[in-house]
Specification:
heterodimer, A: 285 residues, alpha/beta, Rossmann fold, six-stranded mixed beta sheet, four-stranded antiparallel beta sheet, B: 558 residues, mainly alpha, 2 domains, 26 helices, globular
Chain lengths: 285, 558
C-alpha cells in the first residue's frame, strides 16, 4: 500500500488531477479503492466462476456451457482444449470483453458484474492476438498502460527498465509498434500487462510467437509470481508446457469442463500416462 | 482455370468485397439494410452529380458546334478522364503494387512477376473504368445524339471506350516501377498518403474556385472565351496529350482517316501494355523486394535516459486524451479527415473572404462601418465557426477509430465515463483550435480584435453541444470491425448522423436569434441569451453522452 500513498502525493501535484476532479463530479468513486496490487492478504479463492454460460448466434452455438471453476491463490492454472472449445470465450468473459449470458465471475474477491473496475485492476491480461496501437511507440504504449493502471512514476520506471531488459526490447522501445515483429508485439503487450504487478495474470496462448529464450523467461516469471502468492491462468496448446509448469490443469471441450485437477489426479482418473493421451481421450467424442 | 485467371478472379473478389457482400446478405441479415441504404444514397448522389455534369457537357457541345468543332466535347471528356487516371492512377498503382499486404502471399507462389503485376494492374483498371465511365459516356451520348450519328459511330465508341484508361495507366505504371527501382518510398508511405490527400483537396478546392469565378448568367460567353483564346483547341490539347485527340478524331472522323486514328490509338495502348508486362517481368520483383528490406537503426535508450526523458506520468484521462492526439496525428487518414475544424474550416474561410467574385470581405467592411450592423457580421462569423465545429469527424468516429484495439479500452480499469470524457476533451480541443484559427483570420482580415472576441467565446461555448452530439452517436454504435482506418472514418454512418444533429442545433440557434431580433433585444442580450442556450445545450448533451457511455461500453463485446 506504500506505493499507493506516494502515488497519491504525486498525483495531487499533477495538473491532470484538476481535470479528473471535474469528471469525478459525474461519476466514479472507485479511485480510493484501487491499489497497486500483489501480495494481497485476502483469503478467498483468486478466481471463482459459477454456472458460467455464453452462446453465440442467438443461442444456437453454446460456446461455454455451465462452467464452474475455482482457482486458488498461488497456483498456475493451465486451461486446455481443442480449437473452438470455449477457452478464449471463457477468458474474454473473465476480463470483461464479453458479457456472460448466465453465471457469475468472482476475481480477487470482487464480483465482475458489480465491481468491474476493481476486477480489472487485479488482472493483467495478454490476448491471443496483438491488436495494439501501432502508431504509438513501445515506450508510449507502456506509459499509457502504466497511467491507466495508475502505476506511480518510480515504480513504472523500475519495472519498465526491468522488463525491457529482460525481454530485450530496450533498443526498440522508442520505435513505433507498427515496425515490430509478431514476437516483439507479443512482448510489449506482455510488459504492458505486467507493469502494475497484478495479482492475477490471465494469458491467452502467451507462448505463441515468443522465441525460446523469452518463452523460458516467461515461464520462470510465472513461477516466481505464483510463489509470491499470486495466480496465473493461461490457455495453451503446448501440452508439455502445461504438464511441466501447471499446478492444476482444466480441460474444456465443447464449452464444458471435462477434467480438472493436478497432473497426478488426471492420470489417476484417466489411467493414462501422458497429458497428451489424457487430452486426446477426453476430447475425442 | 489458368493461374493468372484464378489470381485475377480472387483479386477482383477482394477488391469489390464480393464474398463479404454475399456473406452480409446471407448471414448478417441485420446489416442488409445498411448496404441497401448506402447503395440508394450513392445512386441518388451520383445521379444528381451526373445530371449537373451532363448539363455542363451539353454547354460545351453547343459552343463547340457554334465554333464548328463539336468534337471538343469528346476531347474534353476523354482528356479529363485520362488526366484524372494519370494522376490518381499513380497513387492507386503505388499502393496496389508496393504497399498491398498480399505481396508476402503472392511472391512465394509459382507465378511470373508479370502475372502478379498484370492482375493487380487489371484490378486498378476495373476501378478506373468505374470512375471513368460516368465522365466519358455522357459526352459520347451528347455528341452522338447531337450529331445524329449512325451505327458506325456507336460501334466505334464501344471499341474505343475500353482502351481509354490503358495509355495513361500504363504510363503511370511504367513511371512507378522504374521510380521504385531506384527510390524506396516504403518508408515515406504515410507522407505519400498525406500528399495524395492534400492533392485531392487542392484539386477539389481549385475546381470550386474555378466554378465560382465563372460570372453568373454568362457561363456560355466564359466557355467561348476559353475556347476562342485557345485557337484550335484540339491542336492545343493534342500537343499536350495526343492520345485524347487520336481517340476523339477516331470516333468523330470519317472514312480511312478515322480508321487510322483508331488503329493508332489501340496499337499504342497495346504496345505500352506489352512494354509494361515485359519490363515488369524484369524489374518488378527486384523493386518490390528491395522495398521489403527496410533497415532500421534501433536506438538504445539507457536506464537514465529512459527514466528521465521517456517515462512520464499522467492521470488516465490525460493519458487517453494524449493517446487520441498521437494516433490522429500519426495516421494519415485520420489527420486528413478528423482535423476538419483546423484544416478545411480556415481554408474555406480564406477562399470565401478573398475570392474576387465573392466580395464577402467587402460586404463585411460595409456592415462594420455601421455600429448597429456589426452584430450581423459577428453572427454570420459565429455561424461559420459553429458550422465547421459541427463537422467534427474526430468526435463522430472517436470510438470507431479504436477498431480491434478496443479490447484495451474494455479491459483497463478506467470507467467508460472517464474514457468518453477524454475523447470529448480531445474532439473539443480540435473544435476550439479551429475556432481560434478562424477567429485569427477574421481579426486579421475584416474585424477588429474586440469585435471578434465575443464571436470566439460564443464559438467555444457552442462547440460543447456540437462536439457532444457528434460523439454520442459513435459512443452508441461504434463501427469497430474494419481492416483499413479509411473504413472507420469514411464509411461510418455516425459522421452523417453527427452532422445532421449539428445542423438541427444550428437551426434552433438561428430561430432563437431571429426571434430575439424580432423582440428588439439589445445586442449584448442577444449574445448573452445565445451563450446561455448553448451552455444549457452543452450540459444536456454532455450528460446524455456520459450516460450513454456506461451502458454502451458494457454492451459492446469484442
Amino acid at each position: 500500500m506504500n506505493n499507493y500513498n506516494s502515488f497519491n502525493v504525486l498525483y495531487l501535484y499533477n495538473f491532470s488531477y484538476i481535470i479528473d476532479m471535474v469528471i469525478i463530479a459525474y461519476h466514479c468513486n472507485y479511485k480510493t479503492k484501487l491499489a497497486i496490487n500483489s501480495n494481497t492478504t485476502r483469503r478467498e479463492d483468486m478466481v471463482e466462476i459459477k454456472n458460467l454460460s455464453k452462446s453465440y448466434n442467438k443461442g444456437t452455438v453454446k460456446a461455454v456451457d455451465n462452467l464452474n471453476l475455482k482457482i486458488e491463490r498461488g497456483e498456475i492454472f493451465g486451461f486446455l482444449g481443442p480449437n473452438g472449445a470455449g477457452k478464449t470465450t471463457t477468458i474474454k468473459m473473465m476480463v470483461g470483453l464479453l458479457n456472460p449470458d448466465e453465471g457469475s465471475i468472482n476475481i480477487n474477491g470482487y464480483d465482475m458484474s458489480k465491481n468491474p473496475l476493481e476486477v480489472k485492476q487485479s488482472i493483467g491480461y495478454v490476448p491471443d492476438n496483438h491488436d495494439v496501437y501501432e502508431r504509438l511507440t513501445g515506450i508510449e504504449y507502456l506509459n499509457f498502460m502504466a497511467d491507466v493502471y495508475r502505476v506511480p512514476k518510480e515504480v513504472r520506471t523500475e519495472r519498465m527498465n526491468y522488463f525491457l531488459d529482460l525481454f530485450e526490447l530496450r533498443d526498440a522501445a522508442s520505435d513505433l509498434i507498427k515496425t515490430y515483429s509478431h514476437g516483439m508485439k507479443q512482448k510489449i503487450v506482455l510488459i504492458g500487462a505486467l507493469l502494475h504487478n497484478p495479482a492475477l495474470w490471465i494469458m491467452d496462448e502467451p507462448m505463441v510467437g515468443l522465441d525460446p529464450k523469452s518463452s523460458h523467461l516467461l515461464k520462470e516469471l510465472m513461477r516466481k509470481h505464483c510463489d509470491e502468492g499470486n495466480t496465473v491462468f493461461f490457455s495453451t496448446h503446448i501440452l508439455e508446457v502445461a504438464e511441466r509448469l501447471c499446478d492444476r490443469i482444466g480441460i474444456i471441450h465443447k464449452g464444458k469442463l471435462v477434467a480438472i485437477g493436478t497432473m497426478d489426479e488426471l492420470r489417476k482418473s484417466d489411467r493414462a500416462e501422458s497429458l497428451e493421451k489424457i487430452f486426446l481421450e477426453l476430447t475425442e467424442q | 482455370m489458368s493461374p493468372f485467371m484464378s489470381l485475377l478472379k480472387t483479386q477482383l473478389n477482394i477488391n469489390f468485397g464480393i464474398s463479404a457482400l454475399k456473406y452480409r446478405f446471407a448471414v448478417e441479415k441485420k446489416k442488409r439494410f445498411e448496404t441497401v441504404l448506402m447503395a440508394i444514397s450513392i445512386i441518388i448522389g451520383g445521379g444528381i452529380l451526373l445530371a449537373f455534369y451532363s448539363y455542363f457537357l451539353f454547354g460545351v457541345y453547343t459552343i463547340g458546334a457554334q465554333l464548328n468543332q463539336p468534337e471538343i466535347v469528346l476531347v474534353v471528356a476523354i482528356l479529363a478522364s485520362q488526366i484524372f487516371i494519370l494522376i490518381f492512377g499513380m497513387f492507386y498503382l503505388m499502393s496496389a503494387f508496393y504497399f498491398a499486404k498480399d505481396v508476402s502471399i503472392l511472391v512465394p507462389l509459382p507465378l511470373k512477376p508479370y502475372e502478379v503485376l498484370g492482375s493487380k494492374f487489371a484490378v486498378v483498371m476495373v476501378n478506373e473504368y468505374l470512375t471513368m465511365l460516368p465522365i466519358i459516356v455522357p459526352a459520347f451520348v451528347i455528341y452522338g445524339i447531337g450529331k445524329g450519328a449512325g451505327l458506325l459511330y456507336w460501334l466505334k465508341s464501344i471499341i474505343i471506350i475500353p482502351f481509354i484508361p490503358i495509355i495513361p495507366l500504363t504510363i503511370s505504371a511504367l513511371f512507378i516501377i522504374i521510380l521504385m527501382r531506384f527510390v524506396n518510398f516504403r518508408k515515406s508511405r504515410d507522407l505519400l498518403t498525406v500528399i495524395g490527400g492534400f492533392l485531392g483537396m487542392i484539386i477539389g478546392i481549385g475546381i470550386s474556385v474555378l466554378v465560382q469565378n465563372i460570372p453568373e448568367g454568362k457561363e456560355e460567353e466564359f466557355l467561348i472565351g476559353i475556347i476562342m483564346n485557345r485557337y484550335g483547341m484540339m491542336t492545343y490539347i493534342g500537343k499536350r496529350f495526343p492520345p485524347s485527340v487520336w481517340a476523339a478524331r477516331g470516333i468523330s472522323g470519317h472514312g480511312i482517316e478515322s480508321f487510322k486514328y483508331i488503329v493508332l490509338f489501340i496499337a499504342v495502348s497495346l504496345a505500352l501494355s506489352v512494354v509494361l508486362l515485359w519490363l515488369s517481368n524484369r524489374i518488378f520483383y527486384k523493386s518490390l523486394l528491395a522495398g521489403q528490406e527496410v533497415t532500421r537503426k534501433r536506438k538504445t535508450i539507457s536506464y537514465d535516459v529512459l527514466s528521465k526523458k521517456y517515462v512520464k506520468s499522467s492521470s488516465p484521462v490525460v493519458s487517453i486524451f494524449m493517446r487520441e492526439w498521437k494516433l490522429i496525428l500519426r495516421t494519415p487518414v485520420y489527420l486528413l479527415n478528423c482535423l476538419t475544424g483546423i484544416i478545411i474550416g480556415p481554408i474555406l474561410l480564406i477562399i470565401f473572404l478573398f475570392t474576387k467574385n465573392m466580395p464577402i470581405g467587402e460586404y463585411a467592411s460595409m456592415f462594420l462601418e455601421d455600429p448597429d450592423k456589426v452584430i450581423y457580421v459577428q453572427l454570420v462569423s459565429l455561424a461559420f465557426i459553429l458550422y465547421v465545429s459541427g463537422l467534427n469527424t474526430a468526435a463522430s468516429t472517436a470510438v470507431s477509430r479504436e477498431g480491434q484495439t478496443f479490447w484495451v479500452s474494455k479491459m483497463i480499469p478506467v470507467s467508460a465515463e472517464h474514457q468518453v470524457m477524454a475523447k470529448f476533451f480531445h474532439s473539443y480541443s480540435i473544435a476550439c483550435l479551429g475556432a481560434l484559427l478562424m477567429a485569427i483570420i477574421f481579426a486579421v482580415s475584416i474585424m477588429p480584435l474586440l469585435t471578434v472576441l465575443p464571436v470566439l467565446i460564443l464559438g467555444i461555448i457552442g462547440s460543447v453541444p456540437l462536439t457532444a452530439v457528434n460523439l454520442v452517436f459513435d459512443v452508441m454504435r461504434p463501427k469497430l470491425l474494419w481492416h483499413n482506418p479509411q473504413e472507420a472514418v469514411k464509411q461510418n454512418t455516425n459522421t452523417f448522423f453527427g452532422i445532421l444533429a449539428s445542423l438541427l442545433i444550428l437551426a434552433l440557434l438561428f430561430v432563437a436569434t431571429i426571434y430575439m431580433f424580432s423582440l428588439g433585444f439589445k445586442n449584448w442580450i442577444v449574445f448573452l441569451v445565445l451563450a446561455l442556450i448553448m451552455a444549457v445545450f452543452g450540459i444536456i448533451t454532455l450528460a446524455i453522452t456520459i450516460a450513454v457511455a456506461r451502458k454502451s461500453y458494457e454492451r459492446i463485446e469484442i
